Amino acid sequence: MTLASPITAAICLGVVLTASSISRADEPRVDLTLQPDSSLTYGPATPAGSEGRTAATSIGGYFARWFNRVNRAQAEQPHWMAPLVTVTPLLVQQVRYDQFWESLSNGVGLNNYDNGKGLELVPTETNEVQIGAPPYLQRTGKRSVEGFADWPFLLLKQRLASANEQNGNYIVTLFLSAQADSGDQAFTNRAWIITPTVAGGIGFGDFDVQATAGVAVPTSHESTLGVALGINATLQYHVLTYLWPEFEVNYLRAPLIFRWLRKYRRRLGARRVWPRTAPPAAAAGARAWWG
Fold first, then answer.
1. Which pTM does this prediction carry?
2. 190, 287 Cβ separation under 8 angstroms
3. Domains of the chain, first to last
4. Could you tell me which residues come within 8 angstroms of residue 123 by beta carbon, excluding any fewer than 6 positions away?
5. Helix (H, G, I), strand (E, B) or coil at 273
6. When you count CB atoms within 10 A of the terminal residue's CB, does the N or C end of the chain come out lower?
């Protein structure tokens, strides 16, 4: 057996490769080069777990910009003072506590602790969320009684239109509030109440008017509780820097309110407190909290 020399083997291999290249010269070629897709955005590879960190950063940025967002929201509306009873149409951020001491006509006293106020937040430039606390009522006199009233735990505001003092001095806002029937026996409606409200205000220099009109709709016992209409209006005048004297008018029209308010229909402005034929269970009272 004769072995080819290394030079002969190399020449043969070169001839074979050349022949193979010539034989494939006429064949169609497939371009395997990867082309970038213009519809995609290329960047550095995302490390594992970065999605969670990005979401956490976004949430952190939302809260970090909270007060700047509140300032922008309030810069687009008038800068009036929130009234004592009337819920202001303004978007305000505050912690509020109200205290009322009332002396009724027959010597009976009524103390209202908190009146359903609480924490008010402005999460967006056109919204406010109010988280209220359950009011505690104390009636003194011959038949003293005290306890918690129904809980107005949530109030939402949606500002529709507004302008600050330099651009019109007005505001229009919608409310939606919810009240739970969590009160004690003497002060409960025995029904949840949903209250849609329209509110607005207009100012003329240092004078402004703020008003609301809401309809309290019970989710149960509507035949005995009825649907109550509440209207509140406030006249304010700005004196010096920190003084805001005001005059408020509150009107309530309802077929049924608290039993212990039966003798005071004139003070409440209601023509009819409840039907005399109302069953005792219904006479426990219905009250809607607009303030």
1. 0.69
2. no
3. 72-284 (2.40.160)
4. 129
5. coil
6. N
